[in-house]
Here is the input.
Amino acid sequence: MTKTRAGCGYNNLKSKAENIMTEHDCLRRFLFTELGVRGEWVNLTESWQAAKRYQKGSAIVQQQLGQALAAVAMLSATIKFKGSMILQAQGNGPLRTLVAQATHDRKIRGLVRGDTELSSASLTHLFGTGRLVLTIEQANADPYQGIVPLEGDNLASALETYFSQSEQLKTRLWLFANDNQASGLLLQELPAQQYAQADWERVEILANTATERELMTLSCADMLRRLFHEEQVRLYDAEAIRFECACSKLRIERTLRAMGKEELLAILQERGSIQVGCEFCGATYEFDAIDVETLSTSRGSNHESPTLH
Here is the structure.
């Protein structure tokens, strides 16, 4: 295996005793240099803990969010863009909404809404009849959105169907999450590349032998060495991932201003103040009568620095 210099806490492991997870909160890309196939590996640890801090639900509900965050972190790294990718799964089942977002600079956040107690992790049981939406938002550009039915045994298979139908790219994902970590592995054919079907099938079969424990405990290099030791694989530098919420007082003000002064005054009369909470990070923004008057007489400053969490 050929690899670039390591990063994000990776050390060259040479003994079985050292063969433990040393990469946390990072994404690593790799390339099969003699095949038309690329891949990605991701680990979320502290970023996963931060992302789920304000999300309620049973272990099964939390696992869906962890898998979605691992997935969107990897998928956002398959394209060149400046903005954010949003993965949404919605249905009429007990798990009504699942949202995971990753930016081009590897910041993640997510939310999940549904019944707290669930007994099955199958998509049908969780979401009922639903849809999977992938949205790419960029500054000064119209959003790109792809929508497919939410079908398959799990989120990974639903995303594989999305890429098969919407992008016509062979794609495989392995997604896992528990209380401590979320991890994932992705394989994808390179666009407009000629490759032998047997090559894809061989790599896919090898990757299918990966276990949840291995994805949770092995470093990326050791994982690739275990799976693809006979292939020529180039491993690229690690990219750090962190939780960060994009909410800000300025954005809330713009939303309130759009509601109109009359409606805002009615809320003030009923509640005494207007409180807006962020579902992603738990931040609360409070506005009183003076704030409402200021909002309704001013368009607000476009130069205000957003408050990030």
Notes: The two ends are 39 Å apart (CA to CA). The longest strand covers residues 83-91.
